[in-house]
Specification:
Blueprint: H1 2-15, H2 19-36, H3 41-51, H4 57-80, H5 86-92, E1 93-95, H6 98-103, E2 109-113, H7 119-124, H8 126-130, E3 134-138, H9 144-155, E4 160-163, H10 167-172, E5 180-184, E6 195-200, E7 203-208, H11 210-217, E8 221-231, E9 234-243, H12 253-268
Parallel strand pairs: 1-9, 2-5, 2-8, 3-4, 3-5
Antiparallel strand pairs: 6-7, 8-9
């Protein structure tokens, strides 16, 4: 009941706003979240300082401020997806480099997604933009109301949402039609036992092995997604091949490659990555080995 009330009073009105007013709300949120509440500023500052040890305090402060502006835009844009026209959605998120996707139309695809720029827009428009049925693995929210609303909004233009605990069932279905699956690959694998350790942004980092595991089990072409912010509220996607021969790759190589590609994107424009996330809360055990860099 309380959740529905919060949605009706605060979120729903935002979804009905034209974009010009939406970004005025975002500017206000920036002041509240960053200046007043100081939401996770200690986490962001620690992450930035450890990731960019050579940057000055002034440089880090600038990235921090720009990140919070971006975060508030993402929050408002994500709310807007609850009530957005198809025309607006596909005008604001454009897929480029579809030749790479089309090249492997007869192969299973493992699309690497990350929390860089507007990942919500990218996922929501995936099926409509590629002309293929795209699926996405997600973790079910504990709040049933918001879980239902978010699932509906993401799937409104054809994206198929697959709960992670249903992944085995999804892969177990036999079909002659090649499948295309999005993996969110830059979360912290806190409880997963099967990880790859590597140096990422100047820190020892536990990286999800899931995309590589499934790519090898199902001979999936692995493609990395680059999301570029053209201007406020507008994004374009480009793609880069990680490998089309997953069965021939050494253990850990695919995981390191797509994380190196993400690292390059972050180094270019760090303000667009999700720095509030506690990516480095897991500590490496003595028997876990950090991979040597093999991909530049």
């Amino acid at each position: 009941m309380i959740t529905r009330l919060i949605y009706s009073i605060f979120i729903l009105p935002i979804t009905l706003l034209p974009f010009k007013l939406l970004y005025m709300v975002s500017d206000f949120l920036y002041f509240i979240i960053y200046k007043v509440l100081k939401y996770r500023t200690s986490v962001v500052r620690k992450n930035l300082k450890n990731s960019f040890p050579d940057k000055s305090k002034e440089e880090l402060k600038h990235i921090e401020s720009e990140f919070y502006k971006h975060l508030c835009d993402i929050i408002c844009e994500s709310f807007k997806v609850f009530n957005i026209s198809r025309e607006d959605m596909f005008e604001r998120c454009v897929y480029n480099d579809l030749d790479l996707i089309d090249k492997y139309k007869d192969r299973n695809l493992c699309i690497i997604g990350t929390h860089y720029n507007n990942y919500e827009y990218a996922a929501t428009t995936a099926t409509g933009s590629t002309g293929r049925q795209v699926s996405c693995l997600f973790s079910r929210l504990s709040n049933e109301f918001f879980n239902k609303r978010i699932t509906e909004s993401r799937s409104q233009f054809g994206l198929q949402m697959i709960q992670k605990d249903h992944a085995k069932e999804y892969f177990g279905k036999k079909s002659d039609e090649p499948f295309c699956l999005i993996f969110g690959a830059d979360q912290s694998p806190t409880f997963s036992k099967n990880v790859i350790w590597m140096e990422f942004l100047n820190q020892e980092t536990a990286c999800f092995f899931g995309p590589e595991k499934y790519a090898k089990e199902h001979d999936m072409v692995v493609i990395f997604t680059k999301i570029n912010r053209v201007k406020r509220g507008y994004y374009e996607l480009n793609f880069e091949l990680v490998t089309d021969t997953p069965l021939l790759e050494p253990h850990g190589e695919i995981t390191e490659r797509h994380n190196r590609l993400l690292e390059k994107e972050i180094m270019k424009k760090p303000q667009f990555w999700l720095w509030t996330h506690k990516r480095w809360k897991r500590e490496r055990k003595p028997d876990e080995v950090v991979m040597k860099t093999t991909y530049a």
